[in-house]
Automatic annotation (TrEMBL):
Residues 63-353 form the AAA+ ATPase domain. Pfam families: TIP49, TIP49_C. One of its GO terms (cellular component) is Ino80 complex. DNA helicase participates in several chromatin remodeling complexes, including the SWR1 and the INO80 complexes. This is RuvB-like helicase. Gene3D superfamilies: 1.10.8.60, P-loop containing nucleotide triphosphate hydrolases, RuvB-like helicase, domain II. The lineage of its organism: Eukaryota, Fungi, Dikarya, Ascomycota, Pezizomycotina. The keyword DNA damage applies. It is an enzyme of class 3 (hydrolase). Transmembrane segments: none annotated.
Length: 457
């Protein structure tokens, strides 16, 4: 009997859409940055520095260290961090947070920080999974009356016959697998395998016993699987330590690694405690020592790092030295400021000196008019808009004189204003109208007449 539960990874959704045009650092193989490449414009020195960091990470020389991207707002710090993680590959976890995210009334801040550290540490597990594999000899959905009434019938179980070189088996499966089987377009005579624990189904190809049948489409013929129908098979899986924490905190039948761990630990914990994490670390270390699993340190990006307080910084120092630490990238747009949580200790970027000493600091600089114009152009293309040359110049001008963010944010409303007056592309007047409708920070402050108390009148 096959048990069906599907556990989805709980990785965060990619919530940054302002950076969709960023594809990578845009470096040549020799590490030199092209003026415009990978969606990036300018910021050449910072991109090359990030390229060196990528090499350090690949050579595993980053432990105990972290990167700080320091520069004014809208100079591409977040974009650089994202590009850096793209360079490391898709299987590498990337966990972006903002300094202030860790403050909550429910969770201790170091706890929140720890959780994000574990989101950024991946584990590649080579597991031997229990599978059913063979050539499909029978595929019969069993129907019953729809329990909700009505005329339709629902499928209660699926009978499936599988044949391998050594024998054959008849399985009675849950209807949810039937969907998977339909999606893979499985028919009698195909070779498939079904994972026993997750119910995932994969069509391998057409059995070569049918190779002579008349077939117009190119089909991949595979031999009938060797061995028994029910057997163990090696499968590679990527999870983060946080996935393991969650899965073990709320025990559920599911991915194999979870249930294997369940056998080794008391399965009744319902909360992620330090103890639970320690237990998981122990099991993980054991797997690593046995060569079953491999650590894949990812990237933890902490934006607005001056929002962290002295306790968090102490924690960070220690966490960086741990044997399993992700690459930590910090970003700040502050110069000298008071370290949060202290009375009056002023330090660069609001970061204590002992942490500063561990940082590779990469500065980012403001863009010149031409670079701003190129960035605006890229965004126009990414957002699928059309814009007149003169209007483009006007947006770029706002980007240079006011801020890049303000300029980029004008694009979408301007396109709506343009459409309202029936124009095909954004014109100068649309940009001007949006600039009147939406103030930038400087004009907004100036427009408010106060009585000196700080309140508006
Ligand atoms: N060099 C660049 N090339 C292309 N786009 C950029 C560049 N620098 C910044 N951007 C874009 O400008 C916007 C603001 O940049 P962002 O990375 O958020 O700045 P920061 O994090 O330094 O405040 C984002 O949409 C970003 O993708
Ligand atoms: Mg940012």
């Amino acid at each position: 009997m096959v048990q069906i539960t599907e556990v989805k990874g709980n990785s965060r959704e990619n919530r940054i859409s302002t950076h969709t045009h960023i594809k990578g650092l845009g470096l040549r193989p020799d590490g030199i940055a092209e003026k415009q490449s990978g969606g990036f414009v300018g910021q050449v020195a910072a991109r090359e520095a990030c390229g060196v960091v990528v090499d350090l990470i690949r050579a595993q020389k980053m432990s105990g260290r972290a990167v700080l991207l320091a520069g004014g707002p809208g100079t591409g710090k977040t974009a650089l961090a994202l590009a850096l993680s793209h360079e490391l590959g898709t299987k590498v976890p990337f966990c972006p947070i903002v300094g202030s995210e860790i403050y909550s009334t429910e969770v201790k801040k170091t706890e929140a920080l720890m959780e994000n550290f574990r989101r950024a540490i991946g584990l590649r597990v080579r597991e031997t999974k229990e599978v059913y594999e063979g050539e499909v000899t029978e595929l019969t959905p069993e129907e019953t009356e729809n329990p909700l009434g009505g005329y339709g019938k629902t499928i209660s179980t699926l009978l499936i016959g599988l044949k391998s070189a050594k024998g054959s088996k008849k399985l009675r499966l849950d209807p949810s697998i039937y969907e998977a089987i339909q999606k893979e377009r499985v028919t009698v005579g195909d070779v498939i395998y079904i994972e026993a624990n997750t119910g995932a189904c994969k069509r391998v190809g057409r059995s070569d016993a049918f190779a002579t049948e008349f077939d117009l489409e190119a089909e991949e013929y595979v031999p009938i699987p060797k061995g028994d129908v029910h057997k163990k098979k090696e499968i590679v899986q990527d999870v983060t330590l946080h996935d393991l924490d969650i899965a073990n905190a709320r025990p559920q039948g599911g991915q194999d690694i979870m249930s294997m761990m369940g056998q080794l630990m008391k399965p009744k914990m319902t909360e992620i405690t330090d103890k639970l994490r320690e237990e998981i670390n122990k099991v993980v270390s054991k797997y690593i020592d046995q060569g079953v699993a491999e650590l894949v340190p990812g990237v933890l990006f902490i934006d607005e790092v001056h929002m962290l307080d002295i306790e968090c910084f102490t924690y960070l120092n220690r966490a960086l030295e741990s044997r399993i630490s992700p690459v930590v990238i910090l970003a700040s747009n502050r110069g000298m400021c008071t370290i949060r949580g202290t009375e009056d200790i002023v330090a660069a970027h609001g970061i204590p000196p002992d942490l500063l000493a561990r940082l590779l600091i990469v500065p980012t600089h403001a863009y010149d008019a031409e670079e701003v114009k190129r960035i605006v152009k890229i965004r126009v293309a990414t957002e699928g808009l059309a814009i007149a040359e003169a209007a483009l110049d006007k947006v770029a001008e706002a980007g240079t004189n006011i801020s890049l963010r303000y300029a980029l944010q004008l694009l979408a409303p301007a396109s709506i204003v343009a459409r309202c007056r029936g124009a095909q592309e954004i014109g100068v007047q649309d940009v001007a109208e949006c600039q009147d409708l939406f103030l930038d920070a400087g004009r907004s402050a100036a427009a408010m007449v106060g009585d000196g108390s700080g309140f508006l009148v």
